Amino acid sequence: MSGKDKISVFPSRMALTIMKARLKGAQKGHSLLKKKSDALTLRFRQILKKIVDTKVLMGDIMKDAAFSLAEAKFTSGDFSHTVLQNVNKAQIKVRSKKDNVAGVQLPVFESYRDGSDSYELTGLARGGQQIYRLKENYFKAVELLVELASLQTSFITLDEVIKITNRRVNAIEHVIIPRIERTLQYITTELDEREREEFFRLKKIQEKKKKIKAETEALIARRKIELAAQGVRTQEHASNILDDNEDEDLLFD
Amino acid sequence: MNSVNFNINFGYLEGLCRGFKGGILKQTDYINLVQCEILEDLKLHLQSTDYGSFLANEPSPLSVSVIDDKLKEKLVIEFQHMRIHSVEPLSTFLDFITYGYMIDNIILLITGTLHQRDIRELIPKCHPLGSFEQMEAIHIANTPAELYNAVLVDTPLAPYFMDCISEQDLDEMNIEIIRNTLYKAYLEDFYKFCSTIGGSTTEVMCEALAFEADRRAFIITINSFGTELTKDDRAKLYPRCGKLHPDGLAKLAQADEYEQVKVVADYYGEYKPLFDGAGTGPGEKTLEDRFFEKEVKIMMSAFMQQFHFGVFYAYLKLKEQECRNIIWISECVAQKHKAKIDSYIPIF
């Protein structure tokens, strides 16, 4: 990035007004973007804190769920194949919604139960209670996982947007505004110079005019003297029928 | 048969069975296992017991499912050895024991065909003790009804299907209901068979099977609260060869909640202490644990008599419980969750 570039315009007063308007616009944009960046960063930190808490909680819940699986296996034997073979459609489904934060659309996932429990009678003769507890534990774990997933996607999206916004803020602050200011400076210097040139030209013309006038007067004075020497009556000025009431050709007045 | 002629045909196998029983883990072994920190320690301790180096060829790191498979494999080898060397009526008796596993396998295969899974994937998942010759032929059937007509009708389980389920029911009924109906028919059949053998076998086995029947009745009742199972359907699942038949079963069929079940149990001296103090809070033994303990006690007393077939049944059940205990302890060790590691059922 060269430090001396400016927008190339023809320096005129209109360009000056336009540039001034643009500078104002850039400054307003800069302050708005900064506000947006601050709001997003605040939300970002909140989400980060929640993610840390949820991850710790998930560790505990997964441990409990795995342990309840061991308990259920102890009482009712190996029911994993029964469960695996009976799978046909999902009982827990995830819906995604959009949440608007300072103009950024963040995806939010929520889980909901769909359909009845098709494994209600598993372990009917052995270990039904443990299997019921196991189902509850894993349901809790899945819900927590869904929550964690939506937190992490918002985290990533927010991170991207914050980076973009900060880049724009910095760009405006360090590139656009200085460029406009330099352009303004250039225009004003050009205009000033032009004024000075005008001024100088005018003065020069006046001088020249004065000289010419002085010369013509000197010439007239010399001619007058010459003609007087020859005996010709000179008139001060040329006769004019309209102005002078005197007319040579009139004999009687 | 009587005690005099028993040893001619069955003496070797009974001796073998008692030898296996002697190798079941004792309390000291369990104390050692409970103190392990990692699964490798567990493997080390098991090497000094009857299990020997059954885990020797496994690549590390060891996982609980590997231990589970190997334990089951050892049990299956021992059982099949005894089955191969047996003669009538012991061979029929041992076959009866395997029908329970066969029922589980068939339910698995039916579920698989219902959901169009490849049969060849399901075969390795079946329990090895419950395999039967027609298993490989199952892939020719696409619906459960075809399955029944073509394949199941030749298995020894066919009469159980005939008694309770008709062809149309196979498609609609919930798989668990089918499983429990089959199991009920199987238990009643086994009970009848043991009664015909006579002698101490009848005494020991009928007590064991009666307990199993009553236990199933209680557990099914408790687990069906809050589900879609109607009371009539539930009543059809109770095996009738236990002590609860007929009054207790009738009362259980009417029960709506846990308290009413407890009231029914109070009428029977053996089951009243099981329900007292059983609960689901921390530190309390659950009802299922107490049933397991009672089962272990009954099985141990089966070994007190000689010259009967009950020892084989008891040995299998005790070995299974021991497998469950070892798996439980290994899971606790692997997950570093030693809080409830003592919830295994001690045998000796």
| Order of secondary-structure elements of chain A | HHEEH
Query: What strand order characterises the main sheet of chain A?
Result: 1-2
- Greatest interface: A-B, 27 and 41 residues
Estimated radius of gyration of chain A = 47 Å
Helix/strand-derived category of chain B reads mainly alpha
Q: Number of helix segments of chain B?
A: 17
Q: Number of helical segments of chain A?
A: 3
| First-residue to last-residue Cα separation of chain A | 92 Å
The percent of residues in helical segments of chain B reads 55-70%
Q: What percentage of amino acids of chain B are in beta strands?
A: under 5%
Topology order of chain B in helix (H) and strand (E) letters: HHHHHHHHHHHHHHHHH
Percent in helix of chain A: 55-70%
User: What is the count of β-strands of chain B?
Assistant: 0
Question: What is the distance, rounded to the nearest whole angstrom, between the alpha carbons of the first and last residues of chain B?
Answer: 30 Å
What is the mean predicted local confidence, pLDDT of chain B? 85
Largest sheet of chain A: 2 strands, antiparallel
Coarse shape of chain B: globular
Q: What is the alpha-carbon Rg of chain B in Å?
A: 21 Å
Note the overall shape of chain A: rod-shaped
Total count of strands of chain A: 2
**What is the subunit arrangement here?**
heterodimer
